[in-house]
Amino acid sequence: QDHVCSLPQVPFRGAPCSDAAGSQVPYATIMKQVNSSLSGVLWDEIQNAPFYEYKDSVGQFHQVWFDDPHSISLKAAYVKSRGLRGIGMWNGNSLDYSGEAVAEQQTEAMWQALTP
């Protein structure tokens, strides 16, 4: 089915489709891969998060979920609107610190999104 999580069912705190079967992908890889993906960037209204889909060189289907400045800013605004004390992120060193102009813009946008 289109846009259905195809990860094997690995129970994790009651969720039938967890990231336990997945792996982490650096943001630089995501930004390069999304443009050549099957789907382009898709948006999930429930998670308020972007994702995309692609097939690898052997034809296996993959779905990649990630955060971008828009999704991060929505999460940061939620935290602020509820009077919570802060927000954290999984792994800031997965951003692209290569020094390329586009990478610098993307990385700066991600960090700025944490401040609503």
TrEMBL record:
Which positions fall inside the GH18 domain? 1-116
Fetch the Pfam families from UniProt. Answer: Glyco_hydro_18
PROSITE patterns assigned to the protein according to its UniProt record, in alphabetical order: GH18_2
Q: Extract one GO BP annotation from the record.
A: oligosaccharide catabolic process
Task: Show the GO MF annotations.
Answer: chitinase activity
Q: Which domain of life is it from?
A: Eukaryota
Provide the alphabetized UniProt keywords: Glycosidase, Hydrolase
Which InterPro entries has this protein been placed in? Answer: Chitinase_insertion_sf (IPR029070), GH (IPR017853), GH18_Domain-Containing (IPR051887), Glyco_hydro18_cat (IPR001223)
Cellular component (GO) terms are:
extracellular space
Q: Does the keyword Hydrolase apply?
A: yes
Q: What is this protein called?
A: DIAC acetylchitobiase
